[in-house]
Amino acid sequence: MKYQGAVYRPPSEARSLIIQVTLGCSHNGCSFCPMYAGEGFKTRGFDEVMADLKKARVEYPHVRRIFFADGDALCMKTEKFLPLLEAAKAIFPECERVSVYARAENLLSKTDEELKMLKDAGLGIVYIGAESGSGEVLRRVNKRETPEDIILAVKRAEALGIPASVTFISGLGGKELMREHAEETGRMIAEMGASYVGLLTLMISPGTPLSIDLAEGRFQPLSTHEVLDELETILKYADCKKDCVLRSNHNSNRLVLAGTLPHDRERLLAQVRQARVDESRLRPRGFRGY
Ligand code: SF4
After folding, report:
1. Which of 26, 38, 194, 242 has the greatest number of CB atoms lying within 10 Å of its CB?
2. Which protein residues are within 6 Å of ligand 1, measured from CB?
3. Atom 5 in ligand 1: which residue has the minimum CA distance?
4. Helices marked H in the chain — which ranges?
5. Chain segment 134-191, per-residue pLDDT in tens
């Protein structure tokens, strides 16, 4: 396959066929995000996507999963997105699910009826970058969404049978908002009822607005121990009422955690506390490139 620009996908879609149905991100404004810097946003036409699907059919005899890229493909209007799901299903009848990155606002702009149609046409999971449960952190990083938006979007998707995989970024509040970021993130995890939660750790990319805040002293990043403190607080507040698979196995994380909330919460908390006194439980510093 030939792709346009940089292509990103969730780690769990590593073996999926990736088809770009949009280019870039419709928001492209989060202060920490280097993904589509300098790139405009564009929705690809039906014929262009069809050509990619047909080409992929020739190249790949068995496609179990498809990921529709780029940054928030679900921003497409339902009347444009639905035919793409139907085409994917027709061309790859063996495909078990199609997934996308979505912003909360993408989901909230669609009615329940529309989301149900997308689910029935093959939309099998949505990946949402919540980043923080704190409204102040979201405001400062220019997420242009509120915690209430995100919670409502996740609840609606889950209620309609579309599992949500939601990521948060440890350290995103810096030292100043560390406590608020951790407590509110834990509360959001408990309340929103997502099937999956991923915890990443902030890595500040050169050229982003956040890197300028760092250079000019407006943002103080957390130490490794502070990230662990934050993780402990997130877990303490993440009092989930339904099963939520939690992972912190992204390349940005020094401590790898895997479990299901609420059952594994005490074990995960013990792992965090052990890592605080025993650095050998952490991935080496160089692993995440700092
Ligand atoms: S919504 Fe996602 S892809 Fe778009 S700028 Fe923010 S973090 Fe980056």
Report:
1. 194
2. 25, 27-30, 33, 35, 71-72, 103, 129
3. 28
4. 46-59, 78-91, 104-108, 112-120, 135-140, 147-159, 178-192, 209-215, 224-237, 265-277
5. 999 999 999 999 999 999 999 999 999 999 999 999 999 999 999 999 999 999 999 9
Burial letters for 144-172: b for 16+ Cβ neighbours within 10 Å, e otherwise? ebebebbbebbbbbbebebbbbbbbbbbb
Using DSSP bridges, classify how beta strands 244-248 and 196-201 pair: parallel, antiparallel or unpaired.
Answer: parallel
77 with 117: CB under 8 angstroms?
A: no
Q: Give the H/E segment covering residue 247.
A: strand 244-248
Identity of the residue numbered 218: R
Report the pLDDT value the prediction gives residue 42, as an integer from 0 to 100: 95
- Domains of the chain (ranges, CATH numbers): 11-288 (3.20.20.70)
Q: Around Cβ 92, how many Cβ atoms within 10 Å?
A: 21
CA-based nearest residue to 171, from 270, 254, 244, 237: 254
The token duo for 285 is 């510093």
| Residue 5 to residue 69: CA distance in whole angstroms | 11
CB 70 within 8 A of CB 22: yes
Ligand 1 atom nearest to 35, measured from its CA: 8
Token pair, residue 60, equals: 């790949």
User: CA 150, CA 195: separation in Å to the nearest integer?
Assistant: 14
Residue 137: count of CB within 10 angstroms of its CB = 23
Measured between its terminal Cα atoms, the distance across the chain in Å is: 33
Whole-angstrom distance, CA of residue 151 vs CA of residue 149: 6
DSSP 250: S
